[in-house]
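Action item from last meeting closed. Structure (310 res):
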């Protein structure tokens, strides 16, 4: 009876970063520059992989898919943040909130799967070099990529449907930068135990399995590389995996810091900053890492620039 007397919430208010106008304008300009740089950087990767013959390999195909995922993540988050900073907050309907949550979670899940596939690709290239061209065919890579995207968006839809069925009453203020799992569930007046249970169960196929693939792949990769007698050859083999390892470490460190570390040990401001790391900072640095540490991409950029100057 008490729950039925409460007003059902159909609209939320995202607080974002609260502060004076100068601080919010500074953050607005910073996020706008980061957003533009991220879109341009990832579009450059996608364009180079599509047009340069030297980059028509499985590794670069998966890198381009990772760039698509990064564009989806930052485009789902940053436009809302910019509006919040300009207006010192933003109203968002329940449907908009659930939609934002769905595309964020699905894009992040697809990135987990893609990072796992990239580690598998490196495993085949280093541990089975003679069979690499027959195993990692174009058809095989496309099937793996489509499977990653479909599995990410389909599995997350189960959790999102259950979240959308929750009743929200009382406070409608989300003290966060965007609609995320934990801040949203804190406002629910329905029982959320099943939702939390589903979230942990879904983490098995979306997070644990890709991590397991990455760890096992690199155990075999390290073992194979250490058996190479030439130090130059060992260094070359490791260099092909260095960019991927940096991206994997950065991505999972930021994600675990948000969802695994107990929230009671962090302030709200720290939670927001950590959320920015994996939704805004990671999509920005991924193309930078692959560009700075990859001679093939640098060469493709130079060739493309030379064609444009003619």
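Sequence:
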């Amino acid at each position: 009876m008490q729950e039925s007397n409460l007003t059902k919430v159909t609209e939320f208010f995202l607080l974002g970063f609260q502060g004076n106008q100068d601080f919010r304008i500074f953050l607005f300009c910073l996020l706008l520059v980061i957003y533009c740089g991220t879109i341009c950087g990832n579009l450059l990767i996608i364009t180079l992989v599509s047009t340069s013959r030297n980059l028509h390999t499985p590794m670069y195909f998966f890198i381009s898919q990772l760039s698509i995922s990064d564009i989806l993540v930052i485009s789902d988050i940053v436009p809302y943040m910019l509006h919040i900073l300009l207006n010192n907050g933003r109203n968002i309907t329940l449907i908009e909130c659930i939609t934002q949550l769905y595309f964020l979670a699905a894009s992040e899940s697809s990135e987990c799967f893609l990072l796992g596939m990239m580690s598998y690709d490196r495993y085949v290239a280093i541990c089975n070099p003679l069979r690499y061209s027959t195993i990692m065919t174009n058809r095989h890579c496309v099937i793996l990529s489509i499977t990653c995207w479909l599995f990410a968006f389909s599995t997350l839809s189960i959790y999102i449907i259950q979240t959308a069925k929750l009743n929200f009453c009382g406070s409608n203020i989300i003290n966060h930068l965007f609609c995320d799992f934990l801040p949203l569930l804190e406002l629910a007046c329905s029982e959320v135990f099943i939702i939390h249970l589903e979230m942990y169960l879904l983490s098995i196929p979306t997070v644990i399995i890709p991590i397991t693939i990455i760890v096992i792949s690199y155990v075999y990769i390290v073992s194979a590389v250490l058996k190479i007698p030439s130090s130059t050859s060992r260094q070359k083999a490791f260099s092909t995996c260095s960019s991927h390892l940096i991206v994997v470490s950065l991505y999972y460190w930021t994600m675990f810091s948000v969802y695994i570390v107990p929230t009671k040990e962090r302030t709200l401001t720290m939670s927001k900053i950590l959320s920015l790391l994996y939704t805004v900072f990671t999509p920005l640095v991924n193309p930078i890492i692959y560009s700075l540490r990859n001679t093939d991409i640098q060469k493709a950029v130079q060739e493309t620039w030379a064609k444009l100057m003619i």
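Note appended to the action item: The first strand starts at residue 11 and ends at 14.
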